[in-house]
């Protein structure tokens, strides 16, 4: 998704971003929509382009299971333009299935503000009440039923609080890879040991902390060894090597009420010393320490390894000589509906899943029989899963007024596409509906330049994900060669 500061040719000069900021989202006292557990919230951010009243989805956080007080790990990175009103809308949903269609999930509330409000608040921290609003919007811009019509409650009703924290991003491009283990953690489970995981927070100028990483859960052990993880130094400390980093250790519980084991603090400078006696930390539970005079700790955490390397950018690869090839395929069919194809033929069951101007025999069909799976893109999904291992990206532009829910699923921005139990290695698909950029359509005034920007928006990250997964580094830029 392009930054908020971009504008189209013919609509005035482009605002110059004053800075790039990172938004962290937390919520408190959300509505509980689940009968036998708590809500599983997700936050969806919508933005408006200059001169447009159309809300467009900017991104989504991860889903947090069983929590009415989520601290989302996913960050939204936006260009902040001082001279421009940058409207934001945050919608909260209780996720009930794997469907990317938000209308299939329970609406929990929404809040409106501007990016300037967040940046200009004390400590760049803004709290706003969540309300039901009057209607929700489909992520592709279509208006859905009023909130109250799908079990969301009374419009205007308060339903919790959203907390938005903005921080200016530093220019540090280093990525640190760390691995930790623990020893003799407190036993929290009655019939077993503990299921420990760690949560990392970086400190803010006002003394609060922002979540920046969460490890996996290691089951039934008091001596866990967590997998190594990579994290941008910017996310860990925003380039300030002496900024406090707080680490909390928990025992995971299925219902979301994770038991606190203890905590410790460190800094990037300390961690950068690597494996040594400096990086063996006592895990302390302050409440237990106050109650028990002989209390020492609730176990220890040890840094096993620490490495750091520069993060390469898309431009590094382009400057180093990486070339992109572009192939176009056009489906000339008037309709892809089942009733418009010949018996035994399917527009979506041919070959490796590519788009063709001629229908192809479907291997799953006998004459006069429809595809048994009734999913037009099943073979396509399998082809995309396999193609995710290759150095390629797929851009789909949907033409017409049809519902494109299947194409949104292929896009895989929020739920990685899978087929036959195998999940795609990475997201390689970008889907854009052409109608959003037609004169008089939902995106009227955005022009063809807007369409071009949208269809190419995910290429840089997709290229980087492939290169990084295979350890391929860019060639030195010619100007850097002695």
UniProtKB/TrEMBL annotation:
Residues 1-130, 158-281 form the C2 domain. GO terms for cellular component: plasma membrane. Transmembrane segments: none annotated. Gene3D superfamilies: C2 domain. Keywords: Calcium, Metal-binding, Repeat. One of its GO terms (molecular function) is metal ion binding. It holds the Pfam family Copine. Belongs to the copine family. This is C2 domain-containing protein.
